[in-house]
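Notes continue from the previous slide.

Worked example: a multi-chain complex. Inputs as given:
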Amino acid sequence: MDGGKVTLGRAAGLYAGAAVLRLAIFSLLPALPDLLTGRVEISTPVTSFKRLQEGLFLYNHNVSPYDGGVYHQAPLFLPLFSLLPSYATFPFLTNFLYVIVDLLSANALWKIAESGEAGASAHFTSPRREKRWSGFVIAATFLFNPFTVATCIGRSTSVFTTCAILHAVAKAVSGAPFGAMAALAFASYLSMYPLLLLPPIMLLAYDRQNPTRAIRSPLKFSLACTTTVALISAALLGMSYLLTGSWEFLAATYGVQLTLSDLTPNVGLWWYFFIEMFDSFRSFFLAVFWLHLSCYVGGLCVRIRSQPLAVITLLLGIFAIFKPYPSISDTSLFLALVPLYRHVLPLMRYSFVIAAVILYCVLLGPAFYHLWIYAGSGNANFFYAITLVWGLGQSLLVCDLMFAVLRDEWEVERPEMVGKEIRQI
Amino acid sequence: MHDPITHVKPRAEWALIDMGRPCVPGNVTARVIKHPVAGSASTSKVQRLGAEGCITMTTPQPLWKEPPPEKPADKRRRGFVILSFWLIVVLLGLPIWWQTTTIYRADLPLQEMLDWAEGRACRPVFPLRIAVQAPSLHDHEAQTLVRLTQHALDDLNDFAGHHLRLSLAKQSAPSADLDVVLTVRLLPGDATTAHLDPYEPVLHVTYPPNAIPSASASSSTLATYIASTLREAFAEEQATISYLLSANGSSPSSGEPRPLGQGLAPDVAESLAKRSTRALRYAPTYHLTFSLFTSGSTPSSWDIEKAIEDYMKPVLDVLSPIHNFTIDTQIQLYATPGVQNQVLTKEDLSSFINAAEWPLSPSIGGAPTINFVVFIGNQTIYIPSSSGSESVSSHSWLIPQWGAVYLLPLTSGTAHLPSHELKHPLLTFTSHLLTLTGTPHSGSLPLRLSSLSRIRSADLLLRASSTLGSLARLVVALPSISIPPSVADGVATTLSHLRHACYTLGMPEALYHARVAEAAAERAFFEKSMVGQLYFPDEHKVAVYLPLLGPVAVPLLMGAWNEILGWVRRRGVKGKVE
């Protein structure tokens, strides 16, 4: 098809452009990657490239990478990165790996966009679906989003999780439930929290099954999916066990996320709260925070059952706000999926406020962090205040997007109300 | 089917508002419609909105437009959404809340701890073995003498806890047995005399040849004499121990008429009280600080190391089974004492130490410090003796639980203080050290030291027991205090060492066990994590829970309440229809 060729050419151009941008930053501004690696907005204790280097060093010297309590990432990163030439002497291949991962994510996003799932799912077809952006635009907004670029340049390992999640969604959309489950298992293995995406991705995969070899019984389908995820996760964990020789990586990776034992500041809401927390209530509030993070899954899946992709998008937004170690990388993933809902964007009420709040945080966040840590003229409250605003901006976006999606759904039911002002009660 | 009440009520209120207070068009431009958003749409909110006042419509139509009835599918879905949140709260939240906020209370053997504190678990008994060596006597003569002496001792003894057990020792081995506290060595002589050997725990007794009792004698002056001498030798220890027992109140609750402290005369008790207030609390290690203070620029050096080595080290060595010592020294020039009179009176002595300026740190490291201050100056101490006429002059005095001061007169200009000049001060300090460690005064040094170790083990035993008792009472009195496993471990350690100490009382290892028991009991009692929750009243828990959980709970509770209300109404409607 003619259009296909054009698309292919455009895709190649886009990807080449994105890759050139990244590689140019890597080579022309050699100090920037290390600067960004040290930024708390980009590198969290569970994704930091610096900590990965430390783990890699220990691993290559036959010491357990988790000795010293610095490295909190999945053990399978270690053989991958030790295959590459040492970063200190020959950084190009490592940088190239990160660029490739970004491009793979963009490719998955492109597939999701082209499927049209956002506008027309199995149970709901939006009347506005015609008004949408092409895969090219959506991939471009992802690839040239400053957050994505900064994450890539900062070489945070969260890009691997992002890539795995996007591929899980893309596989689910394209009717390959087991591929989706495998990708989800990878994402969960790397960061644990994507496991919470299992219900909506299962719904999405169930809705988009290939009709020729579909499993019709929801129970059987969910059982098969869960088993797949469990088996692949078990295999990955088993490999990690063989690799490190002990189960201590569980406590060092997932345990740290569950207990928040590393209180390095980040853009999330947890660290300050748990610095201030009374010791005797710490475990209780850890459980409360985790339950809070996971309690949205059920409610959203039930409420927006007809649009599982919307559930995934909203959940990713919620995770970017409320997970224990969030970074702008999580926000970039959320922002990558938001343009899929181009058709409901006009229904949003606070677009200007959201954009302003996010810009405000982007400018003031680093400044406040500087005041606290380097200038010493501020204190932890400065940075925490700005992360609160950041959380507020993102939650506004999540709420407003949810409102828009629901209103879109509701207007199908009540066509006479289209374009009229409403009040939520 | 839809609920009739839901949609009737707003209409009625609207009518009311319309009549009573006409709304100014344009002030509120909103339209109330039912909009299903995850779990938040509720009928009661419509009512509340109506009650707030004015609902105007943007559209110019004057009539209230009734929102179409909610579809049953939507209602059911809303129910499921609310249920999904509540399932997480009830199935995961509540168990976790219960699990993480219950106060951990390890089981403690409370009754046993109280038994120890009240002296029911252990009767402190000091069986002191005394060997008798009589090389010049025949076996049966010696045995008779021992039997008679034992009888005499038993008659004299009024304190059941403190036995002296005599036994006939083999002639050749001089007190090789560690358990033997004292050896009585009987030698023939001209008259009946007795004296303690200054270097060994030996009592030398000489007897005239005719003093040997015959096998059938029921009493003997020699035996009585030996018995009373022995009793005298141990009188102070016995008094101290019985004072300790009575001061700790270890048996008032047992109902007995205090057999332990009954033998104490008031003046003896008073002197014992004075002595025990002088002595420092027992610690396995003491830190000795030797300070040279001088009011001028000289002397600026002293041979303290050699002086300690020569004059004090021997005593430190013999004390080493009981205490460890660490030593440091310092010289302070141009030091002004707190009192600058030429003649110091008794009142001046207490303010002589210039605590504000002199660098005498209260405690270095974990061990308590004993200060020994040599002050170069020719002040004299004048204390009128109690009789009035005579005065006692002295160079040194002891400061209870702190240390001692020695005034060393010296010709000015002596730049270096040689060790022989320090002989007197250090010998004085040595005797003060013995007082400060609580050593008894009477008897020979070996006897005093072994008796110190017994007194200390009794003291530690009683103190550990009373700490256990306090812990037990605390645990009973405060049901909200948490008891971490470390406390339970500490109590178990204390109890087992207390038991050992109780069995071995009177033997050297008792001190070790008592020391471990006391340390473990103190650690358990002062466990930090126990008090963390103690001063945390329930009102504060509201402050912990409410800021976060309050906002979360409101929509959850409202959602559940509306669902239940709706369900009850539907039941009611159904019932009426039937």
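Summary box: Chain B is about 45% helix and 15% strand. Residues 110-121+445-531 of chain B form one domain.
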